[in-house]
């Protein structure tokens, strides 16, 4: 294991940008978009809500008895698609016909993590289930590429506490818009207000994270929206954890069992290289087969002298969970966290890690342990700095009392 940790220092870093794809659509041929749970057929009367703005992609020809259109919307027809009046001929499976209504897409929100999925970018498929994101990072971060599937229409609310939502690029209808100018051109077209609505504007930056230590996602101000959406999908409350004292990682909505490690780092720290290092040396090993890992830069709010205003300190957060059950819940994650801490003790300085603090929650009653490590160089420097400060202050006080300092 130690040899693997040393070897992985030579691995090239992968790009930190992630592709995140919007899942729902407003396509005519998507059965779940209709209240009958099926695509309208020839004897049906199709209803779009009069006052609902909508964009609908139509991929094939359809015969219908009647269709009521909205006051503001669009039908995007693929090549060969279209509508014709029902001629009264027999249509199997469509007798006697019904009123079929298009579902309301107004409530589909940008900050709903359940409506996004990561898109593989040529990485290792066997590890795709072992790397996850905390809830705030399941929604596109400012350095991510956003994908709306080709040949689909959609309707998404961009309501936010922030005035704008930033992303690296947006792909829609098979075209990638990766510059502010290209995105501005799309916004001037007729389809943009039919597909995007809300109080925040979307902004395409065209650039990714420039820092080797990674960048914070930027979704923390809308964390309450993200958690509210997850809780709605979960029935209103977080799942009951299997450990008595669950952990709550930064950027995550519900408590988890396992382990977290917070790293303080230097400018030499490389987030992606370090993740590759842990994947190669630990996550690939059979004893950690059921462990999942999330790693990212987050910001920890700290009070200034115990009062507001508050300062924000960047740190690297590692979250480890596993598939253990009962008393074994979190055990494998804890063992992997201990291995990471041992590696930091030996190689932290070379990796650009100043210190690491570990917290554990398992299914056993001994959970909630807290461990930490700080390199001897940093510890010694801190102690000497404190002693020097005390001597300096003592000297000033001595001179003041002797009357030599006014």
Count the helices. How many? 7
The overall average pLDDT, rounded, is 87
* Alpha-carbon distance between the two ends: 62 Å
Strand order of the largest sheet: 9-1-10-13-14
Report helical residue fraction.
Answer: 10-25%
Q: Report the oligomer.
A: single chain
Radius of gyration: 27 Å
Q: Which ranges are low-confidence, i.e. pLDDT below 50, for 5 or more consecutive residues?
A: 1-15, 374-384
Compressed to H and E, one letter per element, the order equals HEEEEEEEEEEEEEEHHEEHEHEEHEEH
Query: How many individual domains?
Result: 2
Main β-sheet: number of strands, strand sense, barrel status? Answer: 5 strands, mixed
Shape: elongated
Strand content: 25-35%
Secondary structure tally: strands:
21
Structural class, judged by helices and strands? alpha/beta
Write a structural description.
- With 406 residues, this protein is an alpha/beta fold.
- Helix content is 22%, strand content 27%.
- The chain is built from seven helices and 21 strands.
- It has helices spanning 2-7, 180-187, 192-195, 223-233, 271-283, 331-351, 376-401; strands at 19-22, 45-47, 54-58, 61-64, 66-68, 73-77, 82-85, 99-101, 116-119, 145-147, 156-157, 164-167, 169-172, 175-177, 196-197, 201-204, 258-265, 291-304, 307-322, 353-361, 370-374.
- It has a five-stranded mixed sheet. A five-stranded antiparallel sheet has the order 18-19-17-20-21.
Task: Describe what is shown at a glance.
The protein has 406 residues and is of the alpha/beta class. The protein has helices at residues 2-7, 180-187, 192-195, 223-233, 271-283, 331-351, 376-401; strands at 19-22, 45-47, 54-58, 61-64, 66-68, 73-77, 82-85, 99-101, 116-119, 145-147, 156-157, 164-167, 169-172, 175-177, 196-197, 201-204, 258-265, 291-304, 307-322, 353-361, 370-374. It folds into two domains: 14-237, no CATH class; 239-300 and 311-360, Alpha-Beta Plaits (2-Layer Sandwich), CATH 3.30.70.
């Amino acid at each position: 294991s130690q040899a693997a940790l040393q070897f992985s220092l030579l691995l090239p870093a992968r790009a930190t940008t992630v592709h995140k794809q919007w899942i729902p659509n407003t396509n005519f041929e998507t059965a779940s978009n209709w209240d009958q749970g099926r695509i309208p057929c020839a004897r049906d009367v199709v209803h779009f809500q009069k006052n609902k703005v909508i964009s609908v992609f139509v991929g094939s020809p359809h015969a219908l008895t009647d269709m009521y259109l909205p006051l503001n919307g669009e039908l995007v027809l693929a090549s060969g698609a279209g509508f014709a009046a029902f001629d009264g001929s027999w249509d199997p499976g469509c007798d006697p016909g019904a009123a079929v209504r298009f579902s309301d897409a107004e409530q589909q929100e940008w900050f709903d993590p359940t409506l996004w999925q990561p898109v593989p970018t040529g990485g290792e498929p066997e590890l795709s289930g072992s790397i996850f994101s905390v809830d705030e990072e399941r929604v596109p971060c400012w350095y991510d590429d956003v994908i709306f599937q080709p040949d689909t229409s959609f309707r998404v609310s961009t309501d936010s506490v922030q005035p704008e939502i930033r992303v690296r690029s947006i792909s829609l209808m098979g075209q990638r818009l990766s510059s502010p100018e290209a995105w501005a051109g799309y916004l001037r077209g007729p389809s943009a207000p039919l597909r995007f609505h809300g109080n925040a504007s979307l902004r395409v930056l065209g650039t990714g994270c420039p820092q080797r230590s990674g960048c914070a996602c930027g979704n923390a101000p809308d964390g309450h929206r993200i958690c509210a959406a997850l809780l709605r999908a979960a029935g209103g409350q977080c799942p009951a954890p299997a450990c008595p004292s669950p952990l709550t990682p930064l950027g995550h909505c519900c408590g988890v069992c396992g382990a977290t490690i917070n790293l303080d780092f230097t400018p030499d720290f490389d987030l992606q290289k370090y993740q590759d290092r842990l994947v190669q040396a630990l996550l690939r090993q059979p004893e950690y087969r059921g462990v999942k890992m999330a790693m990212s830069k987050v910001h920890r709010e700290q009070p200034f002298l115990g009062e507001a205003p508050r300062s924000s300190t960047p740190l690297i957060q590692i979250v480890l969970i596993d598939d253990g059950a009962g008393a074994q819940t979190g055990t494998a994650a804890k063992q992997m966290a201990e291995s990471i801490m041992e590696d930091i003790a030996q190689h932290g300085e070379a990796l650009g890690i100043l210190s690491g603090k570990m917290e554990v929650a398992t299914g056993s009653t001994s959970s909630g342990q807290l461990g930490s490590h700080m390199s001897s160089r940093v510890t010694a420097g801190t102690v000497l700095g404190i002693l020097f400060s005390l001597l300096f202050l003592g000297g000033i006080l001595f001179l003041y009392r002797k009357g030599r300092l006014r």
